[in-house]
Amino acid sequence: MKILLPAADISQGVARLAREITLAYQGEPLTVVGVLTGSMVLLADLIRQIELPMQVGLVQARSYRGNATRPGALAINAQMLPDLRGRNVLLVDDIFDTGRTLFELLVQFDELGPASIRTAVLLRKRGRVEVEYEPHFVGFDIPDEFVVGYGLDFNDHYRNLPYVAALEPHELAPESPL
Ligand code: IMP
Ligand code: MG
């Protein structure tokens, strides 16, 4: 695989995201909601650098099935979510690809009566967006390649890598040894 973002670059990008988020809310309390499973590494690093009072919740959204790299129908599990009524909600995900996951979550969260909803992602893939929406806080724009590491997976592998790397086509084959 080919390293796109070394750990040191990610660390700088996450620090910048945290500063932007801290400034944007001007001391207002926040509910940060991480989208499982891909956001877990970013979430842990990000929340420790945001200087605001906050609650943290989780939601599970699955669009990629097994080792398919194309999105299927979205399944949302909101059982780990705190009460969002009247809260400033910041949805955190690993990557904005077609945008369908975050957009669908936004639509569903809107019905829970939050004061505001904004979104933060580590990565945004260029030329892939299929919705009329852009995340508020973006760590890095990357080319249209399938990436893993720092929470991102291929068939639940590679989430633990401290860097973000693009998989080569032969590494994306279903029979590829891991
Ligand atoms: P979207 O709904 O197309 O924006 O896709 C969002 C979800 O797809 C993310 O939360 C990731 O789980 C997954 N995803 C999209 N692109 C990649 C990738 O390059 N590597 C790993 N997961 C990806
Ligand atoms: Mg994911």
Describe, in plain words, how this protein is organized in 3D.
This protein has 178 residues and is of the alpha/beta class. Helices cover 21% and strands 30% of the residues. It is built from three helices and nine strands. Strands 4-3-2-5-6-7 form a six-stranded mixed beta sheet, sandwiched between helices. Strands 1-9-8 form a three-stranded antiparallel beta sheet. The model has no long low-confidence stretch (mean pLDDT 93). It binds inosinic acid and magnesium ion. Magnesium ion binds at residues 38, 94.
Could you give a short description of this structure?
With 178 residues, the protein is α/β, with parallel strands linked by helices. The protein contains three helices and nine strands. β5 (88-96), α3 (100-110) and β6 form a beta-alpha-beta unit.
Name the features.
178 residues, six-stranded mixed beta sheet, three-stranded antiparallel beta sheet, binds inosinic acid, binds magnesium ion
Mean pLDDT: 93
Counting DSSP E segments of at least 2 residues, the number of strands comes to 9
Q: How much is the radius of gyration in Å?
A: 16 Å
Number of helices: 3
Percent helix among the residues?
10-25%
Tell me the major beta sheet.
6 strands, mixed
Arrangement of strands in the largest sheet: 4-3-2-5-6-7
Q: Which small-molecule ligands are present, each listed once?
A: inosinic acid, magnesium ion
Distance between the termini: 12 Å
- Gross morphology is globular
